[in-house]
Write a structure and sequence with these properties.
With 443 residues, the chain is an alpha+beta fold. The chain contains 13 helices and 14 strands. The chain has a five-stranded antiparallel beta sheet with strand order 4-3-7-6-5, sandwiched between helices. The chain has a five-stranded mixed beta sheet with strand order 9-11-12-14-13. It is elongated and about 120 Å long.
Length: 443
Amino acid sequence: MDSFGNVGGLLIGILGLAVAAVGLDPTNHYSSQIFTLGVVGMAAGGIVVLVSSRKPKKTILTHQYEAKSPTSDSGHELTKYKNLYEGSPVMQRTVNTDGIIIECNQAYVKNFGHTKDDIIGKSLFDHTADQSIENMRKTFETWKQTGKVDNVEVWFKRKDGSVFPGLISANNIYDDKGRLIGSNTVIRDISEIYQARRVLDEHERQKIQLEELKKLDAIKEAFYLIVSKEFQTPIEPIKRYCDILKESFAGKLNAKQREAIDEIYYNTARLEQLTHDIVDVQKLNSNRMEFKKEEFQVDEFMQSMIDTCSAMMSDKNIEFVNTTSIKSRITSDKSRLKQVFYNLVQNAIDFVPQQGGKIEIGASEEGDSVLFYARDNGIGISEKRKESIFKKFYQVDLSFKRKYGGTGFGLVICKGIVENLGGKIWFQSKEGEGTTFYFTIPK
């Protein structure tokens, strides 16, 4: 469009100067206007305007040139270039030296949403977005001093209040006496370019964030490994000395002392489980958890869970039952499945009442899989917590956890193990009535 405009301006300039050169009277109204057209065409390089100093100030620039004869070549050429200005897909406006808009094309009218009558006579700042007022002021001063503006980014404001970015370029226009009377400005809407730039900037921002997250992930993994190792180091001797004390090797214990040793042992065991959970969560996060499958009997496995988990409830008045009746065999990782049940039962212990609490485990056939479950009559899960119950590193309500215990790692580990073994896990719960966790494992 720019190349075409320059050629058009040059043609108009040649036309005007050629007519003047063949001897038309320069005092003649039409000769003067044609000469002016030549000056404008040559000076503006594609700005299709006609200038007449004989018109009132408000309309010093006009497209309403009438040729001597409706069939004259010059008349057709002027109409042609007038139509090019009006029909250009690029927004164009003409302003005087005071910054008042005195002409614009249809693309400008359509884009800004005003009528042409509303636009003519308005300040160019009326169509400038607030954030670009100062920039437009500087640009206008630059044009006054240099006579040219090239591809300056400005934000514009439409009638409906919406804004858009544009690139403006401007050239001087003169009257037939060579006096500066204004400029013609071309405005290109760069919304798509600006959006593409924003997408690229956002992509770069996300790339930087990803790199930062990778660094944090590495730090987090190193921290977990250090913490788990440092926790594990003192746990074994504490448990060992607890066993020595309970066996009365260091002297006979009274009932109160034995109760204190049991409490130390129980909480040390929980701390040990926490260190294992930290390591397992990190292994699941990095897909480094190992699984070793073997064939085993489901009913025997479930009975072993009763034997293993009953010790956790020895000092609590909680009923613990196994309702499994199937004799199916399954090929899976028995050790990891024990870990799932251990976490589910431990979770249930934290939330069932200490008097009258009940935990039930069981298994049944379900097509090509075995359906396992752990049910309790605890406090249930509130609606607001249900969506986040299996989320990794879900930040639980700390006051809630202080009241009922638990770290929040157990269910994350259960989900990771079950899914890695090809099954799925879910739950049903009603607040105040209890919760049932279900999971399937392929045979």
